[in-house]
């Protein structure tokens, strides 16, 4: 806040007015400097918060990735073992199944 050396400049000598003006200029410069410093601290705090949040997000993502990779190895191995097994019986789908079933039924009826 700006402060005057006295309440009014009326009735002051020229030297007193000059001193009052000089004190007012110094007060203004100090106020501007304090505001700049406060803005700089605020900006630095915001940048620090952004960097901290980014680092936390990266750490969470890396933890999730490690967890998924750990799960994936087990599941891939189990699926590979299951895929390498030979089926116990023949399974057909769609139109082929109808044709095969019709052929089997025809053999049964003719026999």
Distinct helical segment count: 2
Query: What is the H/E order?
Result: HH
* Structure summary, number of beta strands: 0
Strand content: under 5%
Which ranges are low-confidence, i.e. pLDDT below 50, for 5 or more consecutive residues?
A: none
Radius of gyration: 43 Å
Give a concise summary.
The chain has helices at 14-84, 95-110. The protein has 111 residues and is an all-alpha fold.
Give an overview in words.
The structure is a single chain. This protein is mainly α and 111 residues long. It has a domain at 14-85. 78% of the residues lie in helices and 0% in strands. 0% of the residues are buried. The model has no long low-confidence stretch (mean pLDDT 81).
SSE topology:
Blueprint lengths: L13 H71 L10 H16 L1
Keywords:
2 helices; 78% helix; rod-shaped; 111 residues; mainly alpha; single chain
């Amino acid at each position: 806040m700006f402060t005057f050396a006295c309440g009014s400049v009326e009735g002051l000598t020229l030297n007193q007015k000059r001193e009052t003006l000089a004190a007012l200029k110094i007060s203004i410069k100090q106020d501007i400097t304090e505001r700049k410093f406060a803005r700089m601290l605020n900006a630095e705090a915001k940048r620090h918060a952004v960097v901290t949040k980014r680092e936390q997000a990266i750490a969470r993502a890396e933890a999730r990735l490690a967890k998924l990779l750990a799960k994936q190895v087990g599941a891939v191995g189990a699926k590979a073992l299951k895929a390498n097994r030979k089926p116990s019986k023949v399974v057909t789908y769609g139109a082929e199944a109808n044709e095969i079933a019709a052929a089997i039924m025809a053999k049964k009826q003719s026999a």
